[in-house]
Specification:
single chain; binds flavin-adenine dinucleotide; 7-stranded mixed β-sheet; alpha+beta
Length: about 850
């Protein structure tokens, strides 16, 4: 019995020490104590106590003396680690090292410090930014009919191009000292969100110069002369920029571009200067067909060592005027139904002076790092905003439509099947907007959150697509028949653009989120990798030893925390005292997820090593857990920042339960598919010791969410805040808004009329074809309702009829007037230097 108590006490003590992640000395003292108790109280035979003591002394002494520990343990593990570490190219390393770690580091820590998140100031607009949103941005929207842009002009009208340039839309992220608007990331995101609720074409046209491109690259890496010359011209739209990275043979694997430049002497403006002869073949380049300034990425080579002592210098970025001899700008691609300018460009042996390299000669070969650094921040703004903008449009207009459109004499939004889709739309949008805002706030704090911006890009475009697909199902034929009355079809067709660019979503999910996240956000992995690269053996040994033993403690601690929080339902996890009581349990659950993710990540990396990189399905699911934790954090932060709006609580609760259930499925997906079944069985016992506790959000909660989309309210306004004023103009969105208000006003009047008819106060039998007009006229004549009330019923009927109407066209749909598509003109072969 005593032995049993002793064993249980040892087990509990070990769990507690691991949970608290105590130092090696404390572990040693505790083990010594346990042996002493066993010996002193004769719990074990004396010979066993002596043997245990001997083993303990043999292990404890070297493990607690750093120099001995390094020699006996860490150095051997370091040598083995060097052998198993998959080779990492320079470009891979630069991609992984780009940017900063912020809240993602906390999510990976096993014990996120929620105060840090809650203390992050909620982003706010400056007066000039608010003015720009309310005036210039609204005005730009009012100048565009997306239908006409797409189907009549097949381009933005000239006045719109001019307005974009004159009002500085292309200089939002250029500092005021260079003539730009100098907007915060949040203001930039607000502008992109608003434009995306109105027209995909104008949104992309404004987005690209503010995103990863010449302006951003010059601001961070340009020489003073380049900044002084180009930035004011870009800010005022005197230059139209584009950035060309993608080659037909290198899309996602952009670091493998075969486009090349050879360092050589050449003639420029009558002078002999050092420069590069560049050959490129690029496609899909946004604004390419109208660009005046071509940002170009290519691999620089220096066979004659004219610029230094390296032959293969690496990826380099340069700015080339499109009027420069040899620059070929192709015709236009047709990106789905959007008509933003996009096309190919190529050139062969085009000489450019060294001054045209962004940052000049010292930045030769630094292009990939530049691109990755800028992407780390930029990816968190444009596409998350466009995905969220399209979702706002879909939620606002579809909710209204589902209320005014009736079938079987019931608004379609009240059918449970439709309600289910509306629920997903509302819950997703609440979470998307929260993540968009939090990511912009992080960038405004000076972060370049490489992993979080990847998460925001991936999940906000993906959820944006889901919201629009749901909306299409809700509106039925109305979403399918294209024409100026269709508010959804264009967004539905254009969403795949956002899915594909700036890191296609499958790649981002499978390779980037966890691949980069595990290395960057993990407190020890990058330190271990860096130690393998250290050339000084003593420094390498010391650094690796520290990281290795820190890592072991971290893993044990997370294992214990995962098990304990699983067994106790994480009820004892401490969270900041002043969070909204209704969200308290979510913080506790997310802390449990954090420990479990860190534990699973360590076990996966430890047991699969380099093979994990090829196990994309496992890596994607681990990335999903990290992503869902980020989306949940943003949702909780939004709820606090907006003053815990009780009316919005169903949206918050639904989004949290949906995400927690999905995170549980991702855990389950990793464990069920883990190659080593024994490890999988142990993981399951530790992660889900009492089974799987999370459920899909209830139908009752879903019903409350859907209701919020169907009628005007402060919640509906908050959910769709920042969209183009929904009542502006006479487009389909404004028509729905008007019909919705009119319908809600008319319904009680109609009910009174029908009740009066039932009571026999007037004869409701109207002549054939008389319809509602005759019925209302009788009710008015009988004094059941006033003339104004009668008119309100007719107005609602007419406005609704306008909403449900779709467009029709001439017999040939106007196709005979359109140009037949042509295959792109052949570009010159771009041959890799090595193959030439
Ligand atoms: C409308 C539009 C505008 C664009 N604008 C520009 C621009 O201005 N400048 C510019 O340089 N480029 C631009 N691009 C190019 C864009 O960045 C590429 O399309 C993108 O990098 C993907 O390349 P790809 O289309 O060749 O697809 P591929 O690379 O062929 O990928 C196809 C699929 O395979 C997946 N995949 C690839 N590798 C992996 C992997 N290792 N693991 C898992 N999945 C993987 C991808 O996720 C994708 O789903 C634009 C593209 C579009 C469509």
């Amino acid at each position: 019995m005593l032995t049993l108590i002793w064993l249980v006490a040892i087990l509990l003590a070990a769990l507690a020490l691991a949970y608290l992640n105590v130092s090696g000395i404390v572990w040693s003292a505790a083990i010594a104590g346990a042996i002493a108790v066993a010996w002193g109280m004769h719990i074990v035979p004396e010979w066993l106590a002596i043997a245990l003591s001997a083993v303990f002394v043999l292990l404890a002494i070297p493990l607690n003396i750093p120099s001995l520990r390094r020699k006996l343990v860490s150095d051997a593990v370091l040598a083995a680690f060097r052998n198993v570490l998959p080779p990492m190219s320079q470009t891979e390393r630069e991609a992984i090292e780009a940017g900063t770690v912020w809240w993602d580091g906390e999510l990976f820590s096993g014990r996120p410090q929620w105060r840090k998140l809650l203390d992050t100031p909620a982003p706010a607009l400056r007066p000039d930014e608010q003015h720009f949103l309310d005036h210039e941005t609204e005005e730009l929207c009012s100048m565009i009919s997306d239908w006409e842009t797409t189907n009549v002009h097949q381009d933005l009208p000239p006045a719109v191009w001019q307005y974009i340039k004159d009002k500085g839309f292309w200089g939002m992220n250029i500092a005021k000292e260079f003539g730009g608007l100098g907007f915060s990331a949040y203001a930039h995101s607000q502008v992109m969100t608003k434009l995306s609720t109105h027209s995909g074409t104008v949104s992309v046209t404004v987005m690209v110069p503010n995103s990863l491109g010449p302006g951003e690259l010059l601001a961070h890496y340009g020489t003073d002369a380049q900044k002084r010359h180009f930035l004011p011209r870009l800010a005022k739209g005197l230059e139209i920029p584009c950035f060309a990275l993608t080659n037909p043979v290198a899309g996602s694997d952009a670091a493998a571009i075969p486009d090349y430049g050879v360092v050589c002497w050449g003639e420029h403006e009558g002078k002999r200067v050092l420069g590069l002869k560049v050959t490129w073949d690029k496609r899909y380049i946004t604004l390419g067909p109208v660009a005046t300034l071509l940002g170009l990425a290519f691999r620089a080579y220096d066979p004659d060592k004219l610029a230094g002592d390296k032959e293969d210098i690496g990826i380099t970025c340069a700015l080339v005027p499109t009027t420069h001899p040899g620059v070929e700008i192709g015709r236009r691609h047709m990106p789905l139904s959007a008509v933003f300018q996009n096309g190919p460009t190529w050139g062969r042996d085009v000489f450019i002076p060294m001054d045209w390299v962004i940052g000049g000669q010292p930045m030769l070969g630094r292009g990939w790092r530049m691109l990755m650094e800028c992407l780390a921040a930029g990816r968190g703004i444009s596409l998350p905003s466009s995905g969220t903008g399209m979702a706002k449009l879909a939620v606002r207009a579809t909710g209204g439509y589902a209320r005014v459109r009736t079938q079987f004499k019931v608004p379609i939004g009240r059918f449970e099947g439709v309600e289910e889709a509306l629920t997903r739309m509302g819950g997703n949008l609440y979470m998307m907007d929260a993540a968009r805002t939090l990511t912009a706030a992080a960038i405004d704090l000076g972060e370049k959150p490489a992993v979080l911006s990847g998460i925001a890009k991936l999940h906000l475009t993906e959820r944006g697509r889901q919201v629009v697909i749901d909306a299409m199902d809700v509106v039925g034929g109305k979403g399918i028949m294209m024409g100026p009355s269709n508010f959804l079809g264009a967004a539905y067709m254009q969403l795949p653009v956002a899915i594909t660019v700036e890191g296609a979503n499958i790649l981002t999910r499978s390779l980037i989120v966890f691949g980069q996240g595990a290395i960057r956000c993990h407190p020890f992995v990058l330190k271990e990798i860096e130690a393998t690269r250290e050339s000084d053996p003593a420094k390498a040994s010391a650094a690796y030893d520290k990281a290795l033993f820190g890592h072991i403690g971290f893993t044990l601690s997370n294992m214990a925390r995962t098990l304990v929080t699983g067994l106790t339902g994480s009820h004892f996890v401490t969270v900041p005292a002043n969070v909204a009581p209704e969200t308290r349990r979510y913080y506790q659950q997310l802390t449990r997820f954090s420990a479990a993710l860190a534990f699973l990540a360590d076990v996966s990396m430890g047991s699969l090593g380099g093979a994990l990189k090829r196990k994309e399905k496992l890596s994607a699911r681990l990335g999903d857990i990290l992503s869902l934790m980020y989306l949940c954090s943003a949702t909780l932060k939004r709820y606090e920042d907006e003053g815990r709006q009780q009316a919005d609580a169903p949206l918050m609760h639904w989004a949290m339960w949906d995400a927690m259930f999905k995170a549980q499925s991702a855990f389950e997906g990793v464990i069920s598919n883990f190659p080593n079944r024994l490890i999988a069985a142990v993981m399951r016992r530790i992660v889900f010791p009492l089974g799987r506790p999370y459920f899909v959000p209830s139908d009752k909660l879903g019903h409350e969410v859907a209701k919020l989309l169907l009628e005007p309210s402060a919640t509906r306004d908050r959910l769709t805040a920042g969209m183009r004023s929904p009542t502006a103009g006479d487009g389909p969105v404004a028509q729905i808004e008007r019909a919705l208000v009119a319908t809600l006003a008319a319904e009680p009047i109609e009910a009174a009329i029908r009740a009066a008819a039932k009571e026999g106060r007037f004869d409701p039998k109207v002549p054939a074809g008389g319809g509602l007009d005759a019925l209302v006229a009788r009710a008015v004549a009988a004094g059941v309702v006033t003339a104004d009330e009668g008119a309100a019923v007719i107005t609602a009927r007419d406005l609704t009829a306008k909403v449900i109407r779709v467009d029709d066209f001439p017999q040939d749909l106007g196709l005979s007037e359109r140009q037949a598509p042509q295959v792109q003109a052949p570009a010159p072969d771009v041959v890799h230097k090595a193959a030439a």
